[in-house]
Each structure stands twice: as structure tokens, then as C-alpha cells.
Amino acid sequence: MKTLPGIIAGILFMIFALDPLVLAAIGLPEWLKLLIAVVFVGPLAFAMGRPFPLGNAAVGVRGAHLVPWAWAVNGAFSVISTPLANMVSATLGWRVVFAAALALYFCTLPVFPLGRQKA
């Protein structure tokens, strides 16, 4: 599966299926809840981590001097995004966080057009 379509499908799945999944898992044992979380979140988390290394490789080909900047921007947003996602989720709900993530991943389309991805 291509990276970006997989991310988009995974986020859409989470937006529409997370509530019923959580409600169905309420009475299950803790170990089973953990297993369900790993099965549903793990593949999406892996896919969401792929655009940076793929983009960094593309940046390195076009201009190696930009690679440190890419790492710096990634580091800054990695630090900012976790507390920001927690605050937005607590204030507006987790669906808004997923919708924002979906919008931001759509912003990567100029770099990774859906039809031209190599991974």
C-alpha cells in the first residue's frame, strides 16, 4: 500500500470507527484492550512516520544543505505537536485532532503526489 493513501485511509477509519471500537472494548480485559490498541494504532503510526524520511531523502537529492533544516523543523514540530494535540483533543475532541492531521498530510501532496510515490 502506498504511504499517503494508507495514512488517509487510516485516519478516516479512526474518525469513523474509533467510537464504536472503544465502546465495544469497554468490558474487555486490559490485555485485550492493549492488543486492540496496538493492532489499530500501530500500522497507522508506522505509516504516519514514513513521510519524513521519504521527504528527507528527496530533499537530500535536491539540496543536501537543506537536510539539517528539515531535521530542525521536524524536531520543532515533534516537540510542539504532542502537547498541542492533547490540548486540542481535551478542548475540541479527538476527531478535530484527526481532522487536523488529515489536513496536514494532504499538505504533503505537492511533495508526494498520490500517483508518484515510490514507497
The low-confidence parts are none
| SS field, number of helical segments | 5
The main β sheet shows up as: none
State Rg: 16 Å
Alpha carbon gap, first and last residue: 8 Å
What average pLDDT do the residues reach? 87
Report the order of strands and helices: HHHHH
- Whole-number total of structural domains: 1
Structure keywords:
119 residues; single chain; mainly alpha; 0% strand
Q: How would you describe the overall organization of this protein?
A:
The chain has one domain. The protein contains five helices and no strands. It is elongated. The model has no long low-confidence stretch (mean pLDDT 87).
Brief account:
With 119 residues, this protein is mainly alpha-helical.
Detail the topology: elements first, then pairings:
Elements: H1 3-25, H2 30-48, H3 51-62, H4 67-92, H5 94-106
Helix pairs in contact: 1-2, 1-5, 3-4, 4-5
